[in-house]
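ingest -> validate -> predict -> emit
validate: passed (alphabet ok, no gaps, 746 aa)
predict: started
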Amino acid sequence: MAAGLDWLRYEDLDAATRQNTPKYCGGAYVAPNYLQQKPVLDSPDAIYLAADQAEGNMDSAMEFTGNVNVIRDVVLLRSDWAKFDAISEQVDLRGNIRLRTPEVLLTGSAASFNTKSSSFSLDSVSYLFYQMDLRGDAESFSTKGDQVLYIHDGNFTTCPPENNDWSIAASELELDRGEGFGTAKHASLWIKDIPVAYFPYFTFPIDDRRKSGFLYPSIGNSNAGSGLYFTAPYYLNLAPDYDATITPTYMHGRGLLTELEMRHLSRLGESALDLGYINNDDDYAEENPIHDPERWGLAFENSTSLESGVLSSIRYQAVSDDDYLSDLNRSLDINEASHLERQWKLSYRQSNWDAYGLVAGFQTIDEDILAEDEPYARLPELGFNFSDRAQAVRYFLDTEYVYFYRNNEDLTGTAQTNGQRLTVIPGVVYDYDKLWGFFRPGVKLHQTDYLLDDQPASQDEHLSRTLSVATADTGLYFDNDAFYFNSDWSQTLEPRLFYVYTPFKDQSMYPDFDTDYRDFNFASLFQDNRFTGGDRVGDSNRLSAAITSRLNDVSTGREIARVSLGQIYYFDDRQVTIDSEGDGTRSDSPFAGEFALRPTSWLDLSASAIWDASESNTEESAVKLKLHSENYRWVFNVGHRYLEDELEQAEVSGIMPVGEQISLFGSWLYELGDDRTIGSIAGIEYESCCWRVQLFNRSYLTSSEQVDHSFLLKFELKGLGGIDSGGSAGTLIDGYEQREQLRKVH
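emit:
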């Protein structure tokens, strides 16, 4: 196979090319400026001919000998001898032929070129396509018009000239630049000088456009769930605006699972449909003899934006049984969870108001969730929100109507309650903002009415609640300029006070449709209600005091460091609860703090904590340190998370290069309380200039407390794709996906 065509050694490359070329590749293809002294021609179709000697008549035929140059537009042909037939517009060339365009270089022994039809043929060819790094040899090379190229009895590779780790030989190669793909007939894959696979016919991309055809297969094994599997996906490029992928998967012990993904994109929005189906799951039938072995999964999403301002979003998910996702799901866009969402929302937005309507429901797939704990469907939910500003005064109105429903056939007491809830919240806020600080007092009225069904006999069907909420939010900005490390810095000090007053009202008789006690953190210091949802309005007479300090780089405006600390001071006991949470008699809260440090682009340290000063006790904390090189070639992450009486976990992950071409991957998630590993991955990667292989071993704790071990393989041939077992370190190692994106760019 030819080598050295327009190839520069690494040390001879310019700085820009060298930056995107690994040193171990030895160099890179560089297209020369071959038309530095291009003659001035009357039109792009005009032909320029020059040689040391010429004989004949230009009106009929001429022969050219020695240093023959033929130029037409951006095409340059050179040879030792040429004959031009003016009548047929045919050019025949012999000896040391070299053809150049901005995209390709061809060399050979004999060639023919018809200027009228733009057809071209060349014998004993060596070729190089610059943009694809594709090179090879062939018995002959021909064109059909300007877009289709034929290579006969040839081979190709994307390896550098001095490296033939792999190549593909074929009786015929067709490169269709108009369609963006190549076709190989009677092809064989060679590793070094050894043939390892034969393909009677296959296609491959030569640019970024999509094309129908088989994708690379996957094969793998897992000791929990599916066992050995083999997948051969087929991609259908149906139209420029929609496509589909059919993925048949044979799973040992279960049978043939077929998954379908369809996507549609238009100027109004996008849609995606995922389906999974297995007619007869043998393992499931054996384990669950009373259940139907026919199993399926479905996910549909749509988002549409109309020019009138109407927005529509749909999300629908469903499975045939609770175990479908853990047993079978391989490519459906459904994350395993306790509830699957079904929702359709329509909204309309104007400059100072918006309205929306939605219907929403869930499928519960966690058998441990009790019927009284299942979420309510919203059939429907309607909302209207208005906000307007008159100078420094802002008026607003938030309204919401919801009909809550769930199957209450097997429920008793207040758990069987369904019903309607109407919430109306008018309010006004005064915004006083200056460079040195702000003051924002406000008041709103929280009006809620219920009309309930299936209430216990002792409970009222109509309930009403009216509460006022008064707030005052104020803060100051102090700014100090400093000069450190030969740079200008700005350090701020930002104290803030936030006061809330809401009178107490007994709400124990109200239902719980969608309400939870809000998690306590730094952001919750500035919330006027300690509950989420609309069924509880917490009584409050409290003051939040917090302070934040930032360090900014004046030259870039980038925040280098930030630290925040705050606490709530209660002037009255809290009495309103939800599920026995939310009340309290303490006069102060724990301290809530946050810290972030980003001194450089390669270091990111973040931390948050909840600390109870009265008990000298940490209730919650999270710390994460991320380090990486500019190109993410090496990455190191370490983190710790603690939640009192619930969990304490430590995590370490990273990517470490071992030499220029080998990298190690790893991730370890350890539960300190139970003294056990709950997730890990260990892998190795080898990358050359024209191929890459990754081997991973992954272990994780499943929901059934079983440790699942799986072996993952990823093999790529540069420019052609590869074999992927379906696993990735992307979700386990922070920085892995950024590394992969940079590899694609370079």
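The helical segments are 15-19, 282-287, 324-327, 736-745.
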